Amino acid sequence: MKQQVYNPYLPSWEYVPDGEPHVFGDRVYVYGSHDAFGAPIFCVNDYVCWSAPVDDLSDWRYEGVIYRKTQDPGNKLGIRSLYAPDVTQGPDGRYYLYYAFDFLGEFGVAVCDTPAGKYEFYGKVHHKSGKVWGKKSGEQFPFDPGVLTDDDGRVWLYSGFETKVPFVASRWHNLRNDGGVVMELEPDMVTIKQEPKVIFPIKGKEGAFPHAFFEASSIRKVDGKYCFVYSSQYNHDLCYAMSDYPDRDFTYGGVLVDLGDLYLNGNEDESHANNYLGNTHGGLLNIGDDWYIFYHRQTDRSSYARQACAEKLERTPDGGFKQAELTSCGLNGKPLIGKGTYEARIACNLWAKNHETGRVDGKNPKKRLEAHPYFTQSGKDREENGDQYIANMRDGSVAGFKYFDFDGTENKISVTGRGTGKFVVSTDPDGKKIIATVPMNGSAPLSIEAGVHALYFRYQGPDAADFVSFTIA
Q1: CA–CA dist 184, 371 (Å, integer)
Q2: Dihedral angle at the C-alpha atoms of 425, 430, 434, 440, nearest 10 degrees?
Q3: 153-183: buried (b, 16+ CB within 10 Å) or exposed (e) per residue?
Q4: Residue numbers annotated as active site
Q5: Can you give the pTM of this predicted structure?
Q6: What CA–CA distance (Å, rounded) separates 299 from 145?
Q7: How many C-alpha atoms does 460 have within 13 Å on its Cβ side?
Q8: Which of 92, 248, 377, 429 ranks highest by number of CB atoms within 10 Å?
Q9: Model confidence over 22-42: pLDDT tens digits?
Q10: Minimal CA–CA distance to 60: which of 36, 89, 91, 32?
């Protein structure tokens, strides 16, 4: 029997951002960066892989470490991080893993005979002359690879980063950051056949999309068309563009998902989003008639402990996609059962009093957000299980969960956590449709009609509290 699956869909102790899902054989494999809870920088861990059967996206299996940071010849001491990988099956049937080598302006490539085996270093993306791309003055800065092997065996590599990196600029002769680029590779998977050209403009460039390119290149085929997914100038959304060609004439399609549900209902106020904002990165997954967008959320009031999430997408009549709403049930494919115990960590909405949120990146986020709730964990590593919960719930803070399917027989709700105070539970974000008032570590009668509902827990109390879980019976 299939289990329910929540957001984040991996265990509470796992931090895999930048997730790129691919179907190889009868399994879905997710390749991503690898953060660590409490780390001071991005992507401090080696690459790991998770997979699940295509017919059961609740059954995720840890495939182990597939590529170590120290396997890159330029990183023998493991000082540098590896960013935002993508994988494609080459014309020779082998699997090729592409990654950004820290902020050094290089793409490394590793190869393996199986999707989730032990990858071995293969080479650096380079020009026909043999010179590594990113080592020549005036070249576009290599960052966030997205790769696609076409039906006819042609290999397309996408890249780009809007922000100038001073260290790279000084070391590697003034690399450029003009937008998203595309190039074709030779069948050897590392030699550039067609030189990189900019096709996705950044903010301020002529012809820029309404949400201009920032980073997070990802590429898929959708109904025979090329669908490019990227993070925009706002940096907390994933958008898409479509074309009949892999290297030109892309048309902006819209937002696929936003970390705060901005743009979904006309709200563009970052200080009053439905969740806390930071960067995100992901890709599209297609199984049968279903499409999903994979992305990541932030935890610990930090950019360096990001977790993998996904939402199901709806198509538009013109073959595009509607913006997905943040939910707690993502890959579940339907609402969660309206009975049982649920961890607070699966909240898809979180904000402080008066619906205030903010960004977890930038200067001193923990100081700026010291009065705000946040996702955190008790243990520091996998062995300690990293039991996750919502910390710092203060008076007026709200945690929202979407969605549950109630049959009308539910009549009791209880809450576990740490602290005093109570939770006022409603089915609307404004707290007007109250269905229960529950004391911390207590229970209360529940009055809810049959049907699909969201649940919003508004904390009331004099001191900060931790929200661990709730049970409906």
Answers
A1: 49
A2: 20
A3: ebbbbbbbbbeebeebeeebeebebbbbbbb
A4: 18, 215
A5: 0.97
A6: 25
A7: 9
A8: 377
A9: 999 999 999 999 999 999 999
A10: 32
